[in-house]
Each structure stands twice: as structure tokens, then as C-alpha cells.
Amino acid sequence: MRWWDIDPVLELEKDLFPEDAWSRGMFWSELAHSRGAEATRRYVVAVEGGRLVGYAGLAASGDLGDVQTIAVARDQWGTGLGARLLTELLRAATAFECAEVMLECRVDNVRAQKLYERFGFEPIGFRRGYYQPGNIDALVMRLHTASDSGSAAGSTSVQGNEING
């Protein structure tokens, strides 16, 4: 993701997450930490036919990665794009040498939970009232990426949509 992607990312963000959409400033802040030798973030976008159809971001701190966001345009649901975006984030987690990756997911977003479970994420707890407004709980999930559990980022290839980071 680059600065020129922020406007189309915001459009998709507002469509998918109208109550708790990220602001322009939040994306700028994340991108500020995604370049250079001291980078701690990895953000990617998926483009199809010149249209931004998805984006995702990961933050790394020490040996812990945290999936900050994954979003896929509604007309792309069920195409495997979410899995390809998550694969890119897990590749970044490997590059950042993260031993585990965490994420929060709305408790009512079963579709996303199933995606994360396919990649080996396991539920470990809840954050009550995490998503505001609306006071929706978050399911906290974790993936161990150390060699003893195998990395989920290993073999999935990115095809069909252009993924840019």
C-alpha cells in the first residue's frame, strides 16, 4: 500500500466498516512505519482491473505480529482473496521473524473466523466491547509461526488479483 492507495482504501473501509472505519490519519500513521530499515508494518492492496478490491496490514513488535486489518470488497467475497491477503501478511510476519501472530475478529464475523482457523489461528480469549460504537466483542486469535508448528505462509500463491505492497 502506498499513499495514493489511501483514498480508495478509505472508500472500501467506509463501505465495509461504517461504524468503526479507520480514519485517513490512521492509515497515514501505519504507512509511515512501513518503509525503510526500521519498518515495523506491512500493508498490501489487491487490485483487479484497475480497481482496489482489498487491503490488509500487519504490525510487528519484537517476535509478535498483529494483523491490524483485512478487508475484501463484497463482490470479491468467496473468491479466495482474503486468504491471499492473509498469506501476504504471514509472509511479512516470517520476514519480521515473528514467532506468533495475533488478531482480533468481531464475534459475529463467522466468515472471517473460519478463514483464520483454516490458517491455523486458534481462539484464546475475548475483548469485551472492543468494537465501538456498537459495543461488539472481539474474539482474540493466535497463530504460532515457529518452525515446530509450521508456517501457514509457506505455500499459497498469489494469483488472479495483483497484490501490491
UniProtKB/TrEMBL annotation:
<dbReference type="InterPro" id="IPR050832">
    <property type="entry name" value="Bact_Acetyltransf"/>
</dbReference>
<dbReference type="Pfam" id="PF00583">
    <property type="entry name" value="Acetyltransf_1"/>
</dbReference>
<keyword id="KW-0808">Transferase</keyword>
<dbReference type="InterPro" id="IPR006464">
    <property type="entry name" value="AcTrfase_RimI/Ard1"/>
</dbReference>
<dbReference type="InterPro" id="IPR000182">
    <property type="entry name" value="GNAT_dom"/>
</dbReference>
<keyword id="KW-0012">Acyltransferase</keyword>
<dbReference type="InterPro" id="IPR016181">
    <property type="entry name" value="Acyl_CoA_acyltransferase"/>
</dbReference>
<dbReference type="GO" id="GO:0005840">
    <property type="term" value="C:ribosome"/>
</dbReference>
<keyword id="KW-0687">Ribonucleoprotein</keyword>
<dbReference type="GO" id="GO:0008999">
    <property type="term" value="F:protein-N-terminal-alanine acetyltransferase activity"/>
</dbReference>
<keyword id="KW-0689">Ribosomal protein</keyword>
<feature type="domain" description="N-acetyltransferase">
    <location>
        <begin position="1"/>
        <end position="146"/>
    </location>
</feature>
<protein>
    <submittedName>
        <fullName>Ribosomal protein S18-alanine N-acetyltransferase</fullName>
        <ecNumber>2.3.1.266</ecNumber>
    </submittedName>
</protein>
